[in-house]
Amino acid sequence: MKHVIYMLLVFSAITCTSEKKKIKKYNEHIGDTFFNPKKDNSDFAFCDSTKVFHSRSKVQYTGSSKALETELINQYQFKSIFKNFSGYFFIRFAVNCKNETGRFRYQIVDDNFKETSCNEELVDHIISLTKSLKGWNHVKYNDKSYDGYTFLIVKLINGEIVKS
């Protein structure tokens, strides 16, 4: 039996070693977003930067995702110069234990999920709207409060936000 287990371990190690060359490895967590004085508000701080949750499901929005979507759409101000854009904004940010937000980073992709760009005014508007959302609730786990990361996906077709 020991020989069988040993052979399985050796086979496993060989298989994993050879597969590393073929398969790109993705980390389970994408890591911390470090402070950038050119992008970030210096007033935002984590309550405990050694214990930051990276699970999107732990950060909640008051009134659920439907309330978040409604608030975002109601505040959105369409302009005709936005109509040439269809794609997605992936916006990642932190929510500290005081329900404050910061460290906003984003990526813009087209309908085929290829990185792209769009009108700077549209970028500024979407990011500004995201920063203005005040209903975020920090991570609560085992009756303790924590900081956490979350993200928001905003889909636009012809410059209009699409409901999920």
What is the mean pLDDT? 84
Largest sheet: 6 strands, mixed
Count of separate DSSP helical elements = 3
Radius of gyration: 21 Å
Molecular structure report:
- By secondary structure, the protein is of the alpha+beta class.
- The protein has one domain (29-161).
- It has helices at 2-20, 64-75, 120-132; strands spanning 52-53, 60-61, 87-95, 101-109, 136-137, 139-141, 144-157, 160-161.
- A hairpin with a 2-residue loop joins strand 7 (144-157) and strand 8 (160-161).
- The termini are far apart.
What are the key terms here?
single chain, about 160 residues, alpha+beta, six-stranded mixed beta sheet, two-stranded antiparallel sheet, 3 helices
Short description:
Helices cover 27% and strands 26% of the residues. With 164 residues, the chain is an alpha+beta fold. The protein has one domain (29-161).
Write the layout of secondary structure elements.
Elements: H1 2-20, E1 52-53, E2 60-61, H2 64-75, E3 87-95, E4 101-109, H3 120-132, E5 136-137, E6 139-141, E7 144-157, E8 160-161
Parallel strand pairs: 1-7
Antiparallel strand pairs: 2-5, 3-4, 3-7, 6-7, 7-8
